[in-house]
Amino acid sequence: MKVLRSGLLVLTIAFFAAGCAKTVQPVTAPPVTTAAPASTAPTTSTAAAPAQTQLSPLDDPNNILYKKVVYFDFDKSNIKPEFLDLLTAHAKYLIANPNQKIRIEGYTDERGTWEYNIALGDRRAQSVRRFLLFQGVNPDQISTVSYGEAHPVCSEHNEGCWSQNRRAVLVYLNR
Amino acid sequence: MWRKVLLIASLVLFPLAVAQAALEITITHGVNAAVPVAIVPFAWQVQGPVPNTDVAAVISADLTRSGRFKAIADKSMLEKPTQASAINFTNWRILAVNDLVIGRIKPAGNGNYQVEFQLFSVYTGQQLLGLSVLTTPQGLRWTAHKISDLIYQKLTGQRGAFATRIAYVEVSGKAGKDSHYALVVADSDGFNHQTVFQSNEPIMSPDWSPDGRYLAYVSFENQRPAIYIQDIYTGRRQLVSERRGINSAPVFSPNGKSLAVVLSSSPDNPDIYILNLAGRVLQRVTHSDAIDTEPAWSPDGQSLYFTSDRGGSPQIYKVNLHAGHPQRITFDGSYNARARISPDGHTLAMVHRETGQLHIAVMNLSTGALLTLTNGDLDKSPSFAPNGSMIIYEATYHNQGVLEEVSVDGQVHERLSESQVGVSVHMPVWGPFLSQ
Fold first, then answer.
1. Is the pLDDT of residue B418 over 80?
2. Which of B156, B184, B200 finishes a domain?
3. Does residue B381 belong to the interface with chain A, where contact is any CB pair within 8 Å?
């Protein structure tokens, strides 16, 4: 899914004429479109995948590393105790796999201004980053980005939704 | 008072009708004291079919939208004069109309038109204004807005802001699925909207240059935030900041030579900077460990207002760029953010949280008095009209992001909603007066 989303950046610049009383410019310039081909995700066909293939712990629903999201209280960026084991496991994994890199994405709910939420999402991502660094992860393995309230996972206007959107997501980049 | 003023038709006259969605204006609360005026349909004296733009209807809608006037309906009119000599003022006094506008559209060579209009005081029968405006057929609607500006100024003493533009961000697509973001420019009444940039990643915080030619905004197109400036007429884009960490909240200085921005490249904490656009020189303005964001210039360019949680909760501070320790400006409530300053520098608009809801509020900067203007759940992103009369902002209506406007005295409320289901509009910003 991640691969698909990053591959499909479509950038179109539309030119338009000034609607002024004096002149109207004809619109002639073609839209500029850059579209990278979407890479095909590796498919596992039953015939080609021998049963003994080791499932990555990151993809194993029975492994704690399968979970990659931590949630926050309203207006807060401190890591809640229930997520310490999860983040500790990710720290150990990153230390054991120094070639792995992660991007920590910080998000907020919609109950704030867009730009303040960028700052709050950043603070959440930084809070996770600092925890991982404290555990001994190499800083070069971690980058952060805040989307604020953009890209919500849930769009209703109630606490059930808001609590899902106040999150930091660990995205493994070498997969 | 619920009155549908106009429904926007397709953009037949414009060569590039990019966006499918259209804005629909509903006046949700008007002023009882609105002055009755009459704009008589203009005479069409050009060979060929009558254009889609009804100049008198556009002027009527503009004046009514201001909340200061109430244009009477065509069908109420007892006569429809198009020449001064044909006016019987008694027919207008009966209707208690204060002011009357008549006009004519004539050929002007090369396919252009001459739009003549006259404004009369019904009470005295005197002509208050009489002008002729040259326009292309495509510019007819814009010309109608210019005429509205002139009439508004004559009758109120305040410059009209109808012939201005707004920009906003459209978001479509469901949560958790592929979203689509578009940066849109439209006339102040929502017509003639054009997508100037689009992406599958977020677009945020558009801001107009003082000459109305450029938009600065944040784009996440490379899966990290970067600040761009785009020429809206040529489409040419310039990357101005893609530093490590946050690149957020660009706002043009009043002279257009700098951008106030929010960066976190050192030390992993958002602070306000000023980026000189010519030399790309960065000047750091704030130095706290707290969140400092959402800069707004004072109209004289000497100070910045910004949001900071250095005192424990987000509040608005002001810093003089030459002498300065930031001073806290807001004290009322636990969340006051995203300041914008009125063109005369006397009023601060902000997002004010009350009992968990976000409202638009204004503060008198001389007295510190706060007035809450709106009562939605999630009202955000206030932006002043260039004449300071109205504030445009984003609100939530039927679970969808919509644009609303409120007069700075809180009397007039109206909604510019997307007619297309599933498209939310956010982060409106009202452009400057345009010289043309």
1. no
2. B156
3. yes
Cite the DSSP H helix spans in B191-296.
none
What ipTM score was computed for the predicted complex, to two decimals? Answer: 0.90
Q: Tell me the pLDDT tens digit for each residue of B316-333.
A: 999 999 987 999 999 999
Q: Does A47 contact B at CB distance below 8 Å?
A: no
Number of folded domains that form chain A: 2
Asked if residue B76 belongs to a domain, the reply is yes
CB of B231 within 8 Å of any CB in chain A? Answer: no
Closest residue of B to A126, CA-based? B268
Domain-terminating residue out of B156, B180, B198: B156
Contacts of A170 (CB under 8 A, 6+ apart): A68, A69, A90, A102, A103, A104, A128
CATH number at residue B381: 2.120.10.30
| Whole-Å CA distances, B365 to A4, B151, B316 | 50, 31, 12
Q: Which domain holds residue B124?
A: 32-156
Same structural domain, B298 and B368: yes
Give the B window 41-100 contacts with A, CB below 8 Å: none
Whether B16 maps to a domain, the answer reads no
Write down the pTM of the prediction: 0.86
Identify the sign of the CA torsion B346, B349, B393, B33.
negative
- Chain A partners of B233 at a C-beta cutoff of 8 Å? 15-18, 25
Q: Do residue B381 and residue A114 have CB atoms under 8 angstroms apart?
A: yes
Range B38-76 burial, b when 16+ CB lie within 10 A, else e: bbbbbbbebeeeebebbbbbbbbbbbbbbbbbbbbeeee
One domain, residues A30 and A68: no
Residues B46 and B149 in one domain: yes
pLDDT tens digits, B14-49: 333 333 445 666 767 766 679 999 999 999 999 988
Q: Please, which pLDDT band fits residue B82 given cuts at 50, 70 and 90?
A: very high
**Residue entry with tokens 């004296």:** B45
**A59 belongs to a structural domain:** no
Cis peptide bond N-terminal to B267, omega within 30: yes
Identify which of B195, B29, B163 has the alpha carbon closest to the alpha carbon of residue A14. Answer: B195
Interface test with A, best of B172, B223, B308, B357 (most A CBs within 10 A): B223
Mutation pick from A28, A116, A159 vs chain B, by most beta carbons of B within 10 Å, is: A116
Nearest to A157 among B192, B223, B377 (CB): B377
Whether A19 and B192 lie within 8 Å, measured CB to CB:
yes
- Interchain contact, A114 vs B270, CB within 8 Å: no
- The residue of chain A nearest to residue B225, with distances taken between CA atoms, is A145
Residues of A in contact with B146 (CB under 8 A): 21
Determine, for residues A122 and B270 on separate chains, whether the beta-carbon distance falls below 8 Å: yes
Q: pLDDT tens digits, residue range A128-163?
A: 999 999 999 999 999 999 999 999 999 888 999 999
A113: helix, coil or strand?
Answer: coil
Q: In this model, does residue B265 exceed pLDDT 90?
A: no
In a domain, B25, yes or no: no
Q: Tell me the nearest-neighbour CA distance from B33 into chain A, angstroms.
A: 33
> Residue A111 is nearest to which of B262, B294, B358, comparing CB atoms?
B358
Residue A100 and residue A20 in one domain:
no
